[in-house]
Sequence to fold (334 residues):
Amino acid sequence: MGASGKILVFVDLPDRELDETGRGMLSYAARLAGTLGSSWSAAVAVMPDRGQLAVFGAYGTPAVVCIEGGAALLDTPTLLGKHLAQLARDESATVVLLPHNDLGATMAPIVAHALDGAIMTELVAVRKGADGVRLSRKTLGVRIAETRVWDSSRPLIATVPLRTLSQVIMATVRPSSPSLVAWCPAAPISAAMATIISRIPPDPQTVDLTEADVIFSAGKGCDPTTFEQLKELCRELNVSFGVTRPVYDLGWTGFERMVGQTGRTVTPRLYVALGISGSMHHIGGIKDSRRIIAVNSDAKAPIFPNVDEGFVGDLKELLPRLLKQVKAGTGGAP
Ligand SMILES: Cc1cc2nc3c(=O)[nH]c(=O)nc-3n(C[C@H](O)[C@H](O)[C@H](O)COP(=O)(O)OP(=O)(O)OC[C@H]3O[C@@H](n4cnc5c(N)ncnc54)[C@H](O)[C@@H]3O)c2cc1C
Fold:
């Protein structure tokens, strides 16, 4: 199979809408198609309505293929994966892209097995080299980059991490008017199935910080009282908390809460730095956050040039007031 073959990108439509992950998948596929000189189309399990189809078009999608009965298969990823593999075969796809979420990460090995393909999880970057296509992924919590060469002799099945998807969404693409096709396998597909009976969202208080959506972090500018207030605020807001190294060194938390060069590298939607000076060792671990807000009592603190919004203020004043307001707003005890 040649590298210029077709790319099939799987897009799930939670609540029948193209969410951020879906838009990221389309942007990523459009970019990859440009890199490899390939054609591409999107595979969905839920039939998009006309409005949603226009959104697919805004991201340059040439064609949308809907797996018939796919919505009913969303709770049986094994079977949906087999359908997707069959569709990839019918479409002569050489690359199948999936988001690295629960569904995509579950289906990827099933598709790879069915197509006898090469699998690459958490694919970040793709470059064309003289010896083949160079695929890069980050490992160990985005700390180490690993590059492999795909010689395109077998189909490639790749999952793309959600943090990468959120970064490529704005990629410029040429809008299109996608065709919409319903696809049904020629022969019945069966599989030994595990069925999803419920989905439990991650608890921000315990989730690994590399996966956290919103993080409030405490620096040395916190004292024991404000640190407890910050943790309480995080519980009220249902967000995660992190710390700088000096706070970890004080023994106030475990190592898994430390953010920065020697701690976790984080990529949340929102990072709030409270009483943190902004050393390079800390900034190195937070710079890929979507939005960073800092509060520091020193207007000249080095963190300010590195953030989207900065506030000069004393945590001893700010945190009790913020906590009170949040509790009033969330109905907690004042
Ligand atoms: C090899 C190496 C690796 C490292 N790895 C890491 C790492 O992974 N993560 C990490 O965080 N650090 C790391 N460090 C340490 C790093 O260099 C800094 O020392 C550390 O990040 C500083 O933490 P801080 O901002 O909490 O403390 P400080 O630098 O002491 O800053 C405290 C800030 O709080 C402000 N402040 C004080 N009182 C208040 C108040 N009442 N209200 C509001 N603001 C207030 C101050 O103005 C100040 O800016 C590493 C260092 C080395 C040498």
Remarks:
- The chain has two domains: 6-183, 209-330.
- Residues 209-330 form a domain with the Rossmann fold fold (CATH 3.40.50.1220).
